[in-house]
Each structure stands twice: as C-alpha cells, then as structure tokens.
Fold this sequence. Notes:
The relative contact order is 0.08. Helix content is 69%, strand content 2%. It has helices at 3-33, 36-53, 56-64, 72-86, 92-111, 123-132, 136-146, 149-170, 176-183, 188-222, 251-254, 259-269, 275-279, and strands spanning 114-116, 119-121.
Amino acid sequence: MNKEAADFVKEYEDYVIPLSKEIHLSYFEATTTGDSAKYQKINGLELKLVKFLSDEKGFQKAKSFLDQGSTDVENRMLKLIYMDYFANQIPEELSGKIILLQNKIEEKFNTFRAKIDGKAVTDNDIDSILTNSTDSAELEKAYSASKEIGNTVENEVIELSKLRNEAAAKLGFDNFHQLKLYLNEQTTEELDQIFNQADAITTPVFEKIKSEEIDPFLADRFAVTAEKLMPWHYQNRFFQEAVNIYKVDLDKVYADQNLVGLVGKYFSSIDLPVEKIVERSDLFEKENK
C-alpha cells in the first residue's frame, strides 16, 4: 500500500475505531438500563460518525485508493472503508432524521413490557405461559400482549422505512433493501436463490412433521381439532423454536445448576476462558431491559 493510502487508512482508523467502540459501549448501557439519556448519547455519537463518513473529499479518496493494496488483505480493507463512506453519501439532515428515529424505535422495543390484564410482564413470563399453559384463553392473552409492541412503534417504523428508501434512492437504489444487500456484497437474486433452496429442502419435511406429529399432539393437548389450532398454541412468540412434543425434559437436568458457572467451565476446558466477558455482561432480566 502506498504511503498516501496508508495515511488515509490510519486517519480513518484513528477516528472511526474509538468512536465505534464508544457507540457500542453506549448501546450496551442503554439497552441494559433503558436510560433515555444514554439513547440520546448514542444519537450524538452516531451523528458524529456520520458527519465524518459523509465527507465528500474523504469519499473520493476512498474511491481513488480501491485496489491499491499490495495484498488481498489490504485491498479488502480499502474496499470496506470505501463502502463505509459510500453508505453515508446522503444529505446530513436525512442521516440525522434516520438516526434519531432508529434509536427512538430501539428504545421503545427495548423498554417495552407486555401487559396481561393490566399487569406488566416480562418476555420470560410470556415465554413461560406459552410453553407451559394448556388454557387457550390464557395463551391468547399472553401471545396478543407480546404483539402490542407493534402498535407502539407502528407510525415510527413506517416513517423510518420511507426515510431509508429516500436515502437509498439518493445512492441509486430502488429501496433500502437493495442498498443493504449491496453493502453486504449480495444481490436480490443470490438471496432469493438461497431462501428458495432452503424452502425447497425444508418445506416438505416440515409439512410432514407438522401434519403427522406436531398438530395431532397440540390438538390433543388443547382438546381442539387441528384446524382450530392458533399461533398461541405453538409454544413461542415467533414460531422460531421447535414445539416440545416429546416426553423429554432437558430443563430438569439443569434446574439446580449454576448455568453461568457451567458455561465458564466448558469454555475454560477448550482453552477459551470467558470470565472477563461474563464479568462485563448483564445476564438477567430487570426493569427497562
């Protein structure tokens, strides 16, 4: 890498790395405390980063240095820096609106508490009801309560979508989805192919298991016909976990165990100590988290 390019990379790293670290640490503090002031801090830090990356001169330099590295690693580094600048070549005012709205939505999501019969409950409470209850009315209440976050952020999400699409259009893309794929070095066609392949492989198997095992088990559990089964009968909020239809209770094995301690012992046994990570982590639920 020539000296001019190397100096440019160093300037980028000296500014972006510490600022990015501060953003991520502030995000951790915000999401584990729910403190609005900490979300406001994130806004200021992200606006500062965007201001740096939206600089037209910096962008042109990044563009001119593409493929000027002496190794594949250097060329990759220059490409990623270019992409970072490219993504921010939109009006600063528009970037600011997007950042403020993103963090506003994030704060609402992270501090949301569902309410059942007027009582605030945690995600763990919801999951416990969906997993263990056999009362369809109770399940419906819990499931529906967990979805109320949608009403809370509906207007902001719609507005954010419009702003993101506006930003994408200024960069030459039809919509924000296409822009994100480009920044991740993917195409719509590639992504569709991956999902279509996954769908073709898994759908027949899933449909067989659902019709022959899952639905009969749940229909018997809730004393309804399979046709009457509703989303809240499938034991989780997003249908992303396997339904527990077998008489195997793995939880009881760990009921009296120190799970954090077990995790630490496991990683230490494979020479990947995580004690310092655990010390800095926030592992358990609390208000506004």
